[in-house]
Amino acid sequence: MAAIIEVEYYNTYVLKNVQTGSEPASFSIAAYRTQPQVTFEPVFPGLGFTPDYQNWPSLFSTTLSPESKVFNYIQNYYVEESRLRGGYNNVSTDLGVRAYLEEEEPIQQHRFNALIYSGIYNSQTGFNATNQFITGEAITRALDPVGGSIEKLYAEDTNLIVFQEDKVNRALIDKDTIYTTEGGTSTLPPGQVIGQITPYLGQYGISNNPESFAVYGYSKYFSDINRGVMMRLSRDGLTEISNYGMLDYFRDNLAQLPVNSVSHVVKGDLESNSLANSNIVTNKFTMVNSSLTSISPTGALNLISLGSIMTLQAPNGSPVLIPGQVARITIDNSLNKLTLEYSNTFTIDQNTTGYVASFESLCNSKVVGGWDIHNKQYVVSLQSTPAYISQETDSYSTLSFDESINGWVSFYTYKPTLMGSLKNKYYTFHNNEIYQHYWDQTGVFRGRFYGVDSPSKITFVFNPNASIRKNFKTINYEGSNGWEVVSFIGDSTERVPLYDNGVIAPGSWTSVQDSTSSIYSYEGGLYLENGIPRRAGFNRQQNLYVSNLINNTLPSQGEVIYGDYMTGVKGFYATVTVQTDTVTDNGGTKELFQVGSIYNAI
User: Fold this and answer.
1) Average pLDDT for 547-566
2) What angle (nearest 5°) sits at the alpha carbon of residue 569, between those of residues 567 and 573?
3) DSSP 353-419
4) In Å, what is the CA distance from 395 to each residue of 186, 364, 365, 437?
């Protein structure tokens, strides 16, 4: 122990000496200010004090001017508390005995399938052993490595549920199960935290998507990308809930989620204030008139952590070498600007227009799950890129599962970062902000998510008398004013070719199906003719909204009458999509009770 120095606190500090051999013999203040990457931290591990030649002149050389004062590293002193917990008059300690463990192969191990636990914590007595991992005790539990790495832990009553990539297990907490001679079971407290580990039946896991986990009551929901399924863990064990009408959807879409980097291309011009002079770019480079939609949605300021600039291409097509990596990228869609900050300057030609920057964001896809307590539904968002990278509609698919009908009930037009419920309210997170859903208040638009309005759409399949070919003549619905028909399409007939001089044209095989134009809502189709109001879309009759179906199909071989010369849609069945309009009480409540059609057998 070195000398004891006096400080202003009621405590004792000691001045200690360490020789690391890695520091220079001396270092000046001026050099430190010009080279901030060199720090004093390795020499002052105790309290983390930064050297101050004015307060501690005895430790350093003071023969030079203040700006050039030199700190002698030969002594390598640092200050450290000598009393336990820094308490007044507590026990003072020295280095004492040093414990060490000699291993034949002192190599770091990554035990991806093992759990380890520390000592206990008792808030009533103040006993805290959470920082103690005593190797002499049985403090680890290993799972079958065939199941992959441990991705998620969930404690439920006296059980611990362990989710591996390809397996789901349950472990007893503070007890073990023993089997009696009569074939029964009983529990035995073994004095350890994690007891016997038992796998659930079925070869399922959570893959690498612990963010898909959600729980409500005794049901747990998660995804298994490796098998292309959505799962539920309940009292009856593991169940594939993706089988309830959505087998092929999840099989195809989960398999398409990428697991590598995402590339982005931004085109734009260099802003004049990015230039130190005519051809030298400063270390804050701004592109204006940029095509930013491939990186971030339209909105407020977004800060995105991407990788380095892969390439910057000049207007003449030649690459521009940028030394160093990008520190951060700031996107301001309101001004259509993209700013990059990096470590060094670089040189360009006189032209500042027509640059192309290519980026690579090192991010994996996500399957974000959460429980919507308002509707009692499990909501999952399949995201090819995380929400902070892109909000484009083709980068995600958000949908919900309803326990009451054991089915998937709805798609949503929002891409959340996180989801969750508190009391009776459902929240999602987006761009570092929290949003409350189902906020029923005057002036708040239904179908608005994160400031973007989207119509509500419902798709039906009309299939009465499945084996009879029909001509659907009208469409009607019962409900609120404000619904319009987006499409009404009959089923596809056999594939037929197109002929060129009596020979089938290559690649000309096509399916033929009847369809109609969109049908305006009751208010959307209103017009005046000689001062008389008429309706071009839905009209109201006997408390139903009805409209004729006008065929708009292109002619196909063998048809005598086609297109708008005939009414109705031919087919064994028809698929119709209706949505809310933007004319009738835009953003207000619109109800729909039933949709039907009058048809003739043909």
Assistant:
1) 72
2) 155
3) SSEEEEEEE----EEEEEEETTTTEEEEEEESS-TTT---GGGEEEEEEETTTTEEEEEES---SEE
4) 51, 12, 10, 22
Helix (H, G, I), strand (E, B) or coil at 348: coil
Q: Span 19-34, mean pLDDT? A: 46
Point out the least confidently predicted range of 71-75, 279-283, 378-382, 387-391. Answer: 71-75
What DSSP letter does each residue of 586-597 carry, written as one string? TTS---EEEEE-
The answer to whether the CB of 206 falls within 8 A of the CB of 163 is yes
Q: What is the mean pLDDT of residues 572-593?
A: 90
Residue 10 tokens, joined: 């009621």
Q: What is the mean pLDDT of residues 448-466?
A: 89
pLDDT, position 68? 44
Which residue's entry shows tokens 């002929």? Answer: 499
Provide the pairing of β-strand 433-436 with 425-430: antiparallel
CB 508 within 8 A of CB 501: no
CATH of domain 262-361: 2.40.30
Q: How many Cα atoms are found within 13 Å in the side-chain-facing hemisphere of 11?
A: 15
387 backbone dihedrals φ, ψ, rounded to 5°: -65, -30
Pairing mode of beta strands 544-548, 474-479 = antiparallel
Residue 481, token pair as written in the block: 């004013």
At 45 the pLDDT is 45
- Provide Rg for the chain, Cα atoms: 35
Count H helices and E strands in the chain, helices first: 2, 51
Residue ranges covered by each domain of the chain: 4-86, 114-203, 210-260+365-451, 262-361, 458-601
Per-residue confidence (pLDDT) for residue 167, from 0 to 100: 96
With b for 16 or more beta-carbon neighbours within 10 A and e for fewer, the 124-135 pattern comes to: eeeeeeeeeeee
